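<instruction>
Derive structure tokens from the sequence
<data>
Labelled lines for chain and fold
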Amino acid sequence: MTLKLFGKLVFLLTKERMEYRGDFLLAMLAQIISYSGDYIIIWLFLKKFDTLAGWSWPEIALLYSLGLFTYAIGASFSFVQMRDLENQVKNGTFDAILIRPVNPYLYLVCRGFNLAYLAHVLISGSVLAWALLKLNISLSGMQIVYLVLCVIGGAMIQAGFMSAIGAVSFVWVRTNFLFNLFFKFKEFISYPLPVFGTLIQVLLTFILPFAFINFYPAAFLLTKETPLLSSWTMWIVPVVGPLVYWLGYRLWMRSVNKYQGAGG
């Protein structure tokens, strides 16, 4: 799967979606309204309590936006693709992918590239830009590089976990309940990590490293305290994403190599 072929797939997918332009735009509008509601709920909560664990509304808006922005990028290459694996494996339709002369993982994620996440990117990117302006943060060249690396890393963490869940489809077949668990755990990172007890902080840092998606990048950019990590570890944060994604990919490839078909 080359970049040229991927570009052609995205072009064909875009052309296909634009055949139903009204439906596509209405779906985007619905997503924007839905996530606007989430922002409003957090804003109303902080309007009453002023701060949460020392984080103000613009700071939490930045935190939440980082999580949503990176999710949109990672999920566009992995969520629908890995969620639908359950039915593909159960019905035997996944076998058709295996006879193609391409890497099955790359073919699956590229073929299912989801343009619908553009709505997530628009609203989270807009609020992220507003938060940076509201906080009067003038990012240096190094900080911009750091932020970009953290965004890529955060997207890879989420795509890596979803790829790992998809890999389980080749063994258990039924795995959609794992996506429910994934989103339940992901709800924790909508708020600053110090809000939760030590057990949750350790879990989201060292076992399920969701805190590296948005909390640690935001905390280091805002010079906030990070109880479990020292300031010198800030450059380790972007590395976690590629590592998690690589592990998810390797698990997926290992599992598909053991796949014996719908009747296996």
User: Anything to note?
Assistant: The two ends are 28 Å apart (CA to CA).
